[in-house]
Amino acid sequence: MVKRLTNPLRNRPTPLGSLLNAAATRLSAELDGALRAAGFDDVRAAHAPVFMAIDPDGTRVTDLAARAAMSKQAIGELIRHLGDRGYITLTPDPKDGRAKRVQLTERGWRTVELGERVIAEFDAWLDHAVGPDHVAQLRQALERIITTDPRHRRPPRESAKS
Question: Would you say residue 3 lies in a domain?
Answer without folding.
Answer: no
